[in-house]
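$ ./design --mode recover --in tokens.txt
reading tokens...
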């Protein structure tokens, strides 16, 4: 249904007089600081139990040392660090009184079209591939509990990457070479139709080794059974590499000499790096004399990803493609900051090294794949539709979910990637609403009547009308400390997951820096979680990015709202911010959508297309059903 309401007389509510809950919650921080703090919802009781047990253990140990008197305050440490991997759940916010969550609030938070297991903990996506008509995703999964630990490979399949069917666990920690966890890894499809899965195993002593697994039955499209190679591990940490700094093998690519290459993340002191191995059979390996790449000061590189992009063609490329029309993307998940960084550069086949196009924008010090809550991502080449798909983990400590997008080189800027939701998401579109040139005055909010707004696909374009003479504006305002920070040219955008009273809201907005006489303004794209929830025990951040806007382009954003997940794409996908919000009032039928303009010197004119979105089917596979 298309609608174009008359906004001439639309109510323009002032925005400023609404409370921020930052005082009662955690202090807002910029996304670039990446301060990942857990929030515990669906499984609050079990986590409280875990928290208490850990606290007791700390106190018991402390008491032993201090003649039975505890000196330590209650401190909780994230899981995983002792085992030699990044923190996988953050300390419980023990100093904060827990909010009185109701079942309704908690059940609203679960996503309806982002993949997640039926229950318990998930983290990194692993080994994505397309095989015999099915998309497969494996993922780091704790089948027993809602916190990181006992890591296995969960497994699910889909025909369209939207509707998913859960399958039995694919790999469990049952051998000495992965007894402390079947950690992250990648799939390689070989030209003869075989599938190779390389993954990191954590041994009983927490040494990180690389293991080989393969499907037991290649004629099974579901790839239900996996065999671990009898003589695993196939790789152990080489000299000079710490036993806990050697993990997450990539999909392999083939060189001109016919040998396969695999790269594995590591570090030496504070230098993050990626090792390259060559192999003909995935059993015997030779370590390259050179690192694929290394960047001082970036710390341990987890979940490295390495793939080609076409400079001029429309399609994604298989991992082994190279040539004059190709650049290579190197991505690393930085253990120290929990941010996925990438850079675009050139791969030199002769010595298996990679050099960034712009050394000032090198891996870990330049572009991020996502400026919000997003980690441990991995791409795969979808040979079915000739595209490269990016999977990521949108982290929080309860409803960990996975998300996927198509990724291509930005042929306009030629300096960044473009990420865009896979086209299959559009199959979920239901009712459609259109708004044209809605004028929003400085300091106002305009409601958009699209009904309940918890599952939406929003596309919005903004034009600016200057209200005063040249010279208005500010320099370097960025995202400020949220959408209440006003200046001449921002902020303006939408308020998602807001209630009618605007007592809870999440602004997704642009804020321009410079003056109206400047030929080029700097455009910040931001998401402000600070007033998303009245609950005090929730992490609420302001996420900031800078997005290139070319002279012939309007400001535009696409926003996918899926309950507690808001995924925001600026300028066709040049910049992405994933955020998670846990409102207490703006839920179910009370969740609404608004436009807002908190700039002082401009009107904005907004045109929007909005779709309500259906829920995806994500449920167990009926295994007695014959394919
Ligand atoms: N998660 C896995 C590791 C990887 C980390 C363990 C990244 O293989 O380095 O669950 O989140």
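writing sequence...
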């Amino acid at each position: 249904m298309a609608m174009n309401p008359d906004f001439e007389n639309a109510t323009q509510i002032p925005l400023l007089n609404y409370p921020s809950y930052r005082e009662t919650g955690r202090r807002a921080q910029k996304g670039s600081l990446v301060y990942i703090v857990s929030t515990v919802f669906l499984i609050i009781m079990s986590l409280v139990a875990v928290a208490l047990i850990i606290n007791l253990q700390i106190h018991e140990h402390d008491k032993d040392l201090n003649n039975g008197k505890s000196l330590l305050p209650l401190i909780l440490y994230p899981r995983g660090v002792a085992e030699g991997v990044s923190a996988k759940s953050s300390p419980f916010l023990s100093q904060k009184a827990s909010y009185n969550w109701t079942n309704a609030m908690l059940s609203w938070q679960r996503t309806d079209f982002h993949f997640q297991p039926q229950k318990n903990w998930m983290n990194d996506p692993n080994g994505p591939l397309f095989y015999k008509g099915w998309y497969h995703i494996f993922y780091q999964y704790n089948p027993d509990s809602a916190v990181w630990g006992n890591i296995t490979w969960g497994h699910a399949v889909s025909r369209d990457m939207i509707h998913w069917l859960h399958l039995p666990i694919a790999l469990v920690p049952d051998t000495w070479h992965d007894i402390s966890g079947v950690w992250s890894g990648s799939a390689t499809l070989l030209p003869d139709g075989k599938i190779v899965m390389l993954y990191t195993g954590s041994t009983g002593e927490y040494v990180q080794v690389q293991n080989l697994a393969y499907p037991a039955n290649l004629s099974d499209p579901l790839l239900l059974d996996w065999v671990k190679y009898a003589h695993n591990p196939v790789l152990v940490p080489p000299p000079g590499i710490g036993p806990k700094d050697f993990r997450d093998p990539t999909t392999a690519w083939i060189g001109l000499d016919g040998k396969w290459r695999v790269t594995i993340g590591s570090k030496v002191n504070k230098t993050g790096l990626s090792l390259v191995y060559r192999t003909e059979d995935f059993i015997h390996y030779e370590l390259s004399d050179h690192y694929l790449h290394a960047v001082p000061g970036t710390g341990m590189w987890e979940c490295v990803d390495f793939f080609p992009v076409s400079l001029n063609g429309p399609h994604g490329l298989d991992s082994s493609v190279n040539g004059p029309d190709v650049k290579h993307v190197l991505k690393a998940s930085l253990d120290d900051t929990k941010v996925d960084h990438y850079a675009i550069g050139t791969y030199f086949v002769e010595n298996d090294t990679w050099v960034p196009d712009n050394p000032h924008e090198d891996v870990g010090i330049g572009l991020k794949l996502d400026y919000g809550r997003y980690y441990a991502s991995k791409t795969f080449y979808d040979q079915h539709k000739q595209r490269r798909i990016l999977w990521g983990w949108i982290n929080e400590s309860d409803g960990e979910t996975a998300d996927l997008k198509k990724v291509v080189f930005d042929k306009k800027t030629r300096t960044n990637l473009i990420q865009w939701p896979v086209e299959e998401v559009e199959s979920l579109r239901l009712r459609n609403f259109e708004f044209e040139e809605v004028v929003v005055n400085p300091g106002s909010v305009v409601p958009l009547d699209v009904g309940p707004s918890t599952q939406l696909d929003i596309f919005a374009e903004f034009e600016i009308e200057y209200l005063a003479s040249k010279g208005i504006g500010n320099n370097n305002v960025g995202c400020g400390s949220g959408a209440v920070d006003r200046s001449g040219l921002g902020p303006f955008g939408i308020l998602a997951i807001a209630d009618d009273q605007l007592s809870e809201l999440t602004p997704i907005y642009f804020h321009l820096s410079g003056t109206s006489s400047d030929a080029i303004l700097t455009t910040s794209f931001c998401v402000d979680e600070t007033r998303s929830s009245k609950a005090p025990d929730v992490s609420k951040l302001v996420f900031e990015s800078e997005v290139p806007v070319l002279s012939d382009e309007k400001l535009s954003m696409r926003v996918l709202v899926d309950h507690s997940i808001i995924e925001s794409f600026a300028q066709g996908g040049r910049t992405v911010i994933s955020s998670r919000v846990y409102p207490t009032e703006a839920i179910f039928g009370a969740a609404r959508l608004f436009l807002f303009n908190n700039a002082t010197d401009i009107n904005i004119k907004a045109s929007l297309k909005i779709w309500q979105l259906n829920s995806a089917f994500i449920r167990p596979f009926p295994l007695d059903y014959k394919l």
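exit 0
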